[in-house]
């Protein structure tokens, strides 16, 4: 059997570079009951949108910095494995208890992108007008956006949490900017259509 290389000799860089997207870790799990799984789609209007996990306004190496400002600079978000595990275990228990209606990890693009993806998946808008500045696009590790009928059920949970808004409407309102779901969907789907030449 031969080895598959995930690297490419590059004369331009004078060395070896990773071919993107190079997977670092892969995992497969087995669910006992797929009916109990969480999805990213908003399920109903009027639900609370909560961010679980420690938030920071760090933008180093973020998608926002690269795409909006054309820069790849700064340190990436720090990793705290104990905090990530605690948040992950809380999310898992909230799903098992049926407390949350939708769950999405926060990665490329930060909270704003995660919420936009959830809104598109459920075809339900969101009002997160209080979410402004770097916090909206920070890609800090070990965080999740969850929705639930009443965020008060999280008061006794020890993981950091932040109520950022509510679901509803036909647009995503973030930091004073309202974007209709139709415009978000067109932008989201345009990439593959343009890339494949329609």
Descriptive keywords:
198 residues, alpha+beta, seven-stranded mixed sheet
- The rounded distance between the terminal residues' Cα atoms is 39 Å
Order of strands, widest sheet? 4-6-3-7-5-8-9
- Helix-strand topology string: EEEHHEHEEEEEH
| Rg, Å, rounded | 19 Å
Q: What is the 3D form? A: globular
The fraction of residues in strands falls at 15-25%
Q: What are the segments in which pLDDT stays under 50 over at least 5 consecutive residues?
A: 1-13
Q: Would you count the extended β strands for me?
A: 9
Largest sheet: 7 strands, mixed
Write the layout of secondary structure elements.
Layout: E1 7-10, E2 15-18, E3 48-52, H1 63-69, H2 81-97, E4 102-105, H3 110-122, E5 126-128, E6 144-148, E7 161-167, E8 171-174, E9 177-180, H4 181-195
In short:
With 198 residues, the protein is an alpha+beta fold. The chain has helices at 63-69, 81-97, 110-122, 181-195, and strands spanning 7-10, 15-18, 48-52, 102-105, 126-128, 144-148, 161-167, 171-174, 177-180.
């Amino acid at each position: 059997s031969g080895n598959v290389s995930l690297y490419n000799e590059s004369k331009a860089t004078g060395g070896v570079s990773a071919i993107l997207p190079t997977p670092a870790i892969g995992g497969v799990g087995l669910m006992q009951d797929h009916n109990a799984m969480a999805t990213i789609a908003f399920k109903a209007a009027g639900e609370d949108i909560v961010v679980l996990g420690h938030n920071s306004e760090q933008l180093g190496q973020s998608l926002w910095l690269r795409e909006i400002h054309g820069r790849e600079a700064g340190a990436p978000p720090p990793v705290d494995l104990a905090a990530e595990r605690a948040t992950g275990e809380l999310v898992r228990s909230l799903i098992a208890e049926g407390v949350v209606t939708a769950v999405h990890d926060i990665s490329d693009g930060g909270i704003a992108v995660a919420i936009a993806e959830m809104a598109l998946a459920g075809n339900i808008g969101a009002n997160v007008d209080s979410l402004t500045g770097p916090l909206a696009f920070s890609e800090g590790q070990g965080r999740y956006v969850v929705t639930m009928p009443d965020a008060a059920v999280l008061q006794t949970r020890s993981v950091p949490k932040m109520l950022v808004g509510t679901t509803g409407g036909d647009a995503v309102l973030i930091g004073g900017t309202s974007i209709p779901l139709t415009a978000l969907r067109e932008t989201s789907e345009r990439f593959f259509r343009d890339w494949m030449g329609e």
